[in-house]
Design a protein that fits this description.
The structure holds two protein chains of two kinds. Chain A is mainly alpha-helical. Helix content of chain A is 70%, strand content 1%. In chain B, a hairpin with a 4-residue loop joins β1 and β2. In chain B, α4 (95-118) packs antiparallel against α5 (127-146), α10 crosses α11 and α13 runs antiparallel to α14. Classes of the chains: A mainly alpha, B mainly alpha. The interface between A and B is large, with 83 and 84 residues. β1 (57-60) of chain A pairs parallel with β3 of chain B.
Amino acid sequence: MRGISFIRQFVEIGLAIAIAPLFSGWIAQCRAWMQSRSAPLLWQPFRMLRKLFHKEVALATDASPLFRATPYVLFGTMVLAAGIIPSLVTDLPFARVADSIALIGLFATARVFLSLAAMDIGTAFGTLGARREMMIGFLAEPALLMVLFNAFLLYGKTALPSLVEGSSAPRSVVDPSVIFAAVAFVMVLLAENARIPIDNPATHLELTMIHESMILEYSGRHLALVEWASSLKLFNYACMGFALFVPWGIATHGADGGVPLLMAVAALIGKLVIAGAALALIESLSAKLRIFRAPEYLAMSFLLAVLGLLVHLLQGA
Amino acid sequence: MNFLQTISEETASLAANGLRFILMLVAIWMILGLLGWFRPHSIRYVARALFPIGALVCLGVAVLAGIFLATGHEPEVLVLPLGLPDLPFHLRLDVLSSFFLLLLGLAAAGISTFAAGYFRSGEGSAPALLGLQYHVFLTAMAMVMLADDAYLFMVAWETMALSSYFLVTSHHRIPEIRMAGFLYLVMAHVGAICILLCFGVLQGGSWQFTFDAMRGASLTPFLATTAFLLALVGFGAKAGLVPMHVWLPEAHPAAPSPVSAMMSGIMLKTAIYGILRISFDLLHVRLWWWGVLLIFLGLFSGIFGAIFAAVQTDMKRLLAYSSIENIGLIFTGIGLSILFETCNLHLFAALALSAALIHALNHSLFKSLLFLVTGSVLHATQTRNLGKLGGLIRRMPWVATLALVGTLSIAGLPPFNGFVSEWLLLQSFLFTPQIPHAFLNMLIPLGAAAMALIVALAAYVMVKFYGVIFLGQPREASLVNAHDANWLECLGLGWLALGCILIGVLPQFALGAAAKVTQNLLNQSVASGSTVWFIAPIAPEQASYSGLILLFGIVGVVGVTFVLVRLLAHGRVRRTPAWDCGYPWQTPRMQDTAEGFGQPIRHMFGIFFRMERDMPAPTDSVPRYRIYLEDRLWRGIYLPIARGVQGLADAVSVLQGGRLSIYLLYSFVTLLALLVFVL
C-alpha cells in the first residue's frame, strides 16, 4: 500500500512539472486570442526552456553563491509544494508534511530567496524589484490567511487532504462565505503570481516591473529554472484553489486504482483549461495598477475574505 | 549493561540534585567574574580564557535543566541561610524555571563563546570589570528563575538591572550612551516598583513573602486583577511591550554586541518568565479579559515593532525593534492561552502556551545570533549605519552564511525554527471561534490576520537587514578591508545557528519540553499527536507539519535538479559585468538604501510616525536628503510625563530656599505638628 502511494506521489509531482509550463503557455495563448493577436504555440514555454538550458550562463562578476543557488532552491520548493498539494489524489505520503498554512510559509521561503538573490548583484532594478515583491508579499499574506481561516471554519481543518475531503462532501446549498473566499483567493493568486493588475508578466518597461526586475540578471540554465519555478508556482496556486473551492474529481481516500487516477488527471486538465481561460479573461479586461494602488487592491481582497468569515459566523449565531 | 546502568544512575542523581548542581554552576560564574581581577587589563586572560569556561558552565546549566525537564521530577526546594533574618533565600527548581534555565544555558553558551573572541583591548571598560559585570548579569538572571520568595526575586531582579546598566554604559564617555543608560535605568526601576507592589498584593494579607505562601493565598478577583495589571506593567516594561518599549531601541544599540544579545535574547525572557510565574502559578484566579488585553497589547507591539524595524537605518536599532515585535508575539500567545483557559478550552490553552514558550526559546537563539552578527560587522567595518554597508557576503563569508540562517529563522520561514512557533501560534488562533463570546469570535480572527501581517512584515524587515548589509555592492570604499570574524566568534555564531536549524527540523523536542511546562501549569499538553517525523498539535488529519521531511525534500529535489541540469544542460559560465538592462554607469549608490527600503512602509503606515523631511532643491549643487522619524508615543506620553515630573520637582524646590534658618523652621514646624498629632 505504501509503495503504491509513493508511486502516486511521484506521478503527481512529475505531472505537475510537466503540466505547469503548458498551463502558462495556455494562458498566454488565450490572452493572445482574446486580444486578437496571433497566438504562440501551447508548448512555447518548453521551447524557451530548451533554448535557455542550452545557452551558457552570463554571470555577473560579483554574484555570490547565494545568487547561483537560488534558482535551484526556488525550483526545489515549488516542486515540493506540488507534491504536498493534493491536485490528483489526497492519499499522499507528502501531504502531511505541511498543512495549508505551512504551505504559505514554503512559498514565502521561495519569495525571500528570490528577493535576496535580486539584491545580490546590487543593481538598481534588482533591489527595486526585491522591495516591491516583499511589499506585495506582506500585503497578500494576511488576505490569504483569512481565506484559509474561512476554509477552517467550514471544515475544521487546515490540512489540505482533509480540506479536499471536507469540501467534496455533497451539500445542498453553497455556503455564501465560500464565494467571498474564492474571490479573495483569486485576487491574491493574481498578486502573488505577478499577473495583471499588480504586475505584468509580459512587460518590457523596467520601472513598472516587480517579478521581472528581480530576475533581470539571470540567464541560461538559471533563468530556465526560475521561469519553470514561476510557472510551477502559478500551477500550485491554481491547484490550491481547486482543492479549496472546486475539489471535484480529486481521488479521495479509499478511491484506489487506475480509473479514479485517470479521472482525476482528466478533471485536473479540464479545470486548468477553464481556469487558464478565466485568468486570461481577467488579465485582458483589467489594466495594470500603479504600484501604490496595490495596497488598496489587496486590502479589498482581505476585506472580502473577512466578509466571508463574518457571514459564516453570523449564520452560525 | 553495567555501564548503561551507571549512566542512568548518574543521570538520576543529577536530576535528583539538579538544583544543587545548578547552584554550584551559578557560583562558578561568580568566581569567574572575580578571577578576572588577577590580571584586570589582560584581554587574553579575561576574554580568551575565562569566557570559554563560562560558556562551558552555561552548557552545563542547559544540560542539567534539560535533564530535569526530561525526567519531570517534583519541584526541588532549598533554603539558603542568606538574606533577611526571618526570610532566608528560598530557591525552587520546577518545570517552568527549568525550561527558562534551558533557554538561558543554550543561548548564553553561544554568546559567551562569541564574547571570548569579541572583546578587544582599549574598548570601553577594563576587561576584568566587563567580565565581572557580564558574569554577575548571568548569575542574576539564573537566580531570577530560581527564586522562590519575593525578596530574593527582587534582589536578583535589581542585580540583573544594575549589572546590565553598567554593561550598557561601558562606553560611557559617549553622551548618547549615558542618556540611553539613564533611560534604561528609569524604565527598569518603574518596572521594579510595579513588581514589588504586585508582590505586596499577592501576599494577600498574610505578610508571608515566600512564593509558597502566595500560592496558598486566596485573592478576590479585584485583588487578583490588581496584581496581574501591576505584573503586566512591571514585566512589560522589562520585556519592551508597547508603550513601555522606549528604552529598548536606545539601550540595545548602546551596549556592546554580546551584551545586546544577552539582553535581547535572555533578559527579555526573564520578564516572560515572570509574567508566566505570576499569572499561571501564583495566581489562581484568571479572568478572560486579561487574555484579551494581552492579545491586544501583544499584537499592537508586534505591528509597531515590525513597522519601526522596517524604517530603521541603524542595524542594531532595527534588531531592537524586531525584539519588540517578537515579544509582542510571545505575549499574544500567553494572552490566547489565558483566554482559552478561562473558557475551559484547556487543550487550546496548552497549544497557545506551547507556541509562546517555543517562540521565546527560538527568539533567544536567532536574536542573539543576529545581534552577535552585528558585532562582527561592527568590528569589521566600524559602522552600525546600514547606509555605509553592503556586499559583505564576499568579505565575510562565514558570518554571512551563519547570519543567513538567523535571517531565515527570524523571518519565520520553514524549515527553520521561527516558523514552528509562528505556525503553532496561528494554529491556536484558528480555534478562537470556539470561545463562547460572540463578539470576540468575530474580532479575534482579525488578530490572526494581524499576526500574519506581523510575520510577513518581519520577512520584509529581514530581507532589508540581510540584503543591505551582506548583499549588493559595498556602499563605502573602506569596506574592501572588512575581515571575517575569528574562530571563537564563528563558533559562537555556529552554535546558535545550529540551534535554529535543529529546533526547526526537529520541533518535537521543543514541543515536548513545552508540553512538560503546560502539563505542569495547565494539566494539559499537545505533544500527544506527534511522532518522530511529524508534529500534529491537535490531530494529524487536522493539521501537521514536518520540518525534517521538508528539509530533506528541498535538499533532495535541489540535489536531483542540480545533477540533472548538469547532465542534460552544460555547465558553462561566463563572468561578465552586471547587465542591469544595459545601463552603462552603475554605482553602488544606485542600489536601494535602507531609507529606500523603508519608503513603502512610511507611505502605508505614516500614521505611526512623526516625520521630518528635508528635500533637496532642484538647484542644489550638493543635494542632500534628510529624513528623521520619531515614535509618536515619545511625544505623546513620555515627554508630558517628564515635563510633569520636572514641574512637580520645580514646585517642590520652592521649599529649598538654601537658608539654614528656614530649614530649622521646617524642622520645628514638623516637630510641633507631630506633637499635636501624637498628643
